[in-house]
Amino acid sequence: MEHIRTPKVENVRMIDRLIPRKSTLGTLYLSSTHTIFVENSEARKETWVLHSLVYNVERLPTNSSGSPLIIRCKNFHVYRLLIPQEKDCLDVLASLTRLSRPERYGELFSFSFNPNLDKELREKAWGFIDLKAEFSRMGIPSNLWHVTAANYEYRLCDTYPSELFVPKSASPAVIVGSAKFRSRGRLPVLSYFHRDTGASICRSSQPLSGFSARSSDDEQMLQAIMKSNPVSEFMYVVDTRPKLNAMANRAAGKGYENEDHYTNIKLQFIGIENIHVMRNSQQKLIDVGELAAPSMSDFLWGLENSGWLKHIKAVLDAGVFIAKVVAEDGVSVLVHCSDGWDRTAQACSVASVLLDPYYRTIKGLMILIEKDWVSFGHKFSHRYAHLDGDPKEVSPVMDQFLECVWQLMQQFPCAFEFNERFLVQLHTHIYSCQYGNFIGICQKERRDLRLQERTHSLWPHLWENRAEYTNPLYRIDHSQTQGVLKPLTTAYCFKFWKGMYGRAEKSVASHQSPADCLNAVREESQQLEEELSAHQERLAQLKERKTSGERKTSKLSERVRRPIPTESELSSPLDYFTTPRSEKRTPSFTLPLQLAAPPKNGDPDDLSTCSDFESGVADLSSYSSSGGDDAKDPDADEVVKANA
Amino acid sequence: MEFAELIKTPRVDGVVLHRPFMPTVEGTLCLTGHHLILSSRQDNTEELWLLHANIDSIEKRFIGSLGTIIVKCKDLRVIQLDIPGMEECLNIANSIEALSTLDSVSLMYPFFYRPLFEVIEDGWQLFVPEEAFKDLESMTDEWRLSEVNKDFSVCPSYPSLLTVPKDIDDESLCKAASFRHGGRFPVLSYYHKKNGMVMMRAAQPLTGTNGRRCKEDEKLINATLCAGKRGYIIDTRTIAVAQQAKARGGGFEQEANYPQWRRIHKAIERSNVLQESLIKLVEACNDQSHSMDRWLSKLEASNWQSNVKEILTTACLAAQCIDREGASVLVHGTEGTDSTLQVTSLAQIILDPACRTIRGFEALIEREWLQAGHPFQQRCAQSAYSNGKPRSEAPVFLLFLDCVWQILRQFPCSFQFNENFLIMLFEHTYASQFGTFLGNCVAERVKLQLSQKTVSLWSWVNRPQELERFLNPLYEPNNLVIWPSVAPQSLLLWEGVFLRWNRSTKCLDEAHQEMVHIIEYNKELQNKVNSLRRQLAQLETEDSPLQTP
To answer: Where does A8-101 sit in CATH, by number?
Structure first.
């Protein structure tokens, strides 16, 4: 609490950029975990913003109406406030700036978040995802692969999990030697085994080859991996970096495998750019989303200039290449980049989604993230700026993985059990630190932090709410659900992810999706099925009683029909008057503030509030028809006058 | 003229057909007066049955004696025919070229087409102005149906019957007509039942450089205003373009002469610019080797999406003026046959739920495009692959359909029809066995005797067995005004048209099927439950008198 200079400011205005009429007056509260805006209106609508989700806070010069403050969130929501007194604004700015940049793990929200679970349930929750079970699900043949004890107590590699699958033919000496020849000791280990072909995906970091160094242990390790796939005569080493970057690493004593030293390997460079390029690219993309009244050219040019979709394509291409080699050619692949925890994780997990239908289910995606990202080590705290640190370490690595999955969903609408909302929710949780899953960078650190005792696990919470995250078009026996996905990766197949990056403009993103209608229909069908069987039972009873002359007792139950949400008028047609070119861009107060759905109550520890208010998912009921409400729009007059 | 004269080689064996995302087929190629047919003679089906009118352009290539013809269609499909024998190939190519560019309308296929189905409901009689006027009469008595144009002499591009303010006599209409480009004086386009506001359309006024005025024209449009109310004139051109038009005798309404009207200029491109835009877009879509940067930059440079945005924005503005401002609106550009109709028809889709049904949408196309005199024949003579210099070709109607698709995508439950319906309309405007889109205006259609000599598209479409694939399973009728978002990120490339032949649609079709299954299953359950309920209720009432103590 020591960081809160002013816990409460009254008469704060929350600004809606597109529809100024919708701006609301209210009171701003700062708690140790949230910024809370409570509207003065009768509904007392509340907006909660988790401090750990705040990406930056910007104060604009004070003007006659007050001091503007912009709160930008890591999940791309933007809140614009107008605070009457400059002093209050400065206090809020200072408090929020500090509160949104925790310096120690202990300050993270997950350590104070308490969903009132007892100890037993909490432990059970942490056991929800079982990676041992996952590796046995893959059907790894025990005569070829086994778990090595080499990394017991993280002695070999402190960023890897303690249990590692390696070829059975690799001797302990080879394992140790190979680890020594790899950056940070991240030796080649099994990530995914493809049962249909016997080919595997292994992962590692780059070899410490420099210009001429070699390690016979590492060479034997790769040989062992290749031999674990008895039908294949060679294996691929996929270096996910651009070749130039890989070559540059040689000067630092690192680099890539020399094909002359390793028997029967084929080296393939993919060309995914590094974390710095990706960070800058995403920033440009966010800027595009924040443009005030952009023209189509502004938008498309901005999209091109950001390079974002090009990078998404590169990541997906990497996955497609690996999946093809494994499934079609039956050849094993070793994937690495520099440290083997960013691009490598992306490429491996995208390939897994393409190869294995299980990873396209709700639980399967959780497992995949747990395996390829959490367990194999990924610098969550740095990449997603959980802690105040080097801004150059921040990069949207998982954002890109989630987006690749989203792009695939566009091409294969029936192939995924989960919907877009699930991906958006995952994204928010990766950044928010509400749950302990994504704290720390590796298994060892998480153990040392005693996360399982001090924080809660996200997965059971998402699982309980899976109805919300279900794709109505998914059917387990559908052809798209089976087998390997072969997406097209032509440039025009990639789309701007509006559900993620278009959320700065609420009015833009408020249309109903067919999936939501279908879910409503499906839910209704379920109720109908129940009613049907109840009626059939009752009918049988009645017929029986009629013969026995028994007196009837119960009344017919009325079925509650869940209304199928209808589309309503978009609240304001205002933007049609503006012509983007002629309009002078006002830098500040023209973006709508994202008014999140209000929490059900004001308790920040309440599970439902904390998970929902930042989801950015439109509550359909709030858009349902008000029966053609056509109140005259008072603001429209002004705009007409201004433009005519 | 005999078609046979144009067909030197009517039949070639061993022709190989290549189509994207389909296996190649070898078979016999046949040319008829109107079709190019390829059949492998396996299971008696024709693999290709292409209207010559659908062919936009062809390219020939030779490797040795094997000739290749690349056929580029107006529906944007590109197919390849490998034809053995140089002479045969040349003959075929020449015939296709000649047959696909016939000048005379009366030689077009619709005049030869005999339907294989029974016409139950004649589409030519489906949407007559008198019927539409009856509807209007039930809502207001401020309007009348004028026969001033019955011989098409006042305005050649207007229909014979026009809805005009009741207090304006035919003589005034003639004077107003002489003041408007092409005689297109202001007529009623849409009556907004909710508040009694109207949308009218016209062509530009002929003010010229010396600021001509016309009292009758002023009186005509003022007659649509309520006392003390103002109206909006939406000029689809920028102020600069409108100014330039003065030099050529055109112009815009001067404030001084139309004090009760506020003029708003928008920037919808003229038709020749739109054609250019289409050509660039299709070129970009067809090059699969583009890198991401190049694709996005080509997409941007085509300006197609900008055109969609501008048209949709203008339509929303018109709708907003009517519904939110409670004001009447007059829409015009230059001729009043292109951008004007895009705006008036889209505004009605936004405002009027009836236009979102299949019948209503057909009626809208009849009213706002066919009757209103959009020159379909000129605009749709060539599509994106034409090599020749464009004359008056332009994808004006396609842009309208694209805008409808954008709204449909944003409001997936508000339309009775689906995307396939729009794509079907796009195809039939460019090449069809039906006469609906022949001719440039009502007068021409009357002269061609289309309603006697050809079959109407609607006669075919409205048959239940055809209609089925055009129905939107998610449709839930609602009476709301729907305000689409016109932000760039909300407007997508219409893949169903522009990437249709560049990717497999299998997965998307399957998704659509799933959607249909879910909805159908729900309906089935509802029926079962309802019938059981009735049974139960009956049993219980039968039961109760006996049971009463």
So the answer is: 2.30.29.30
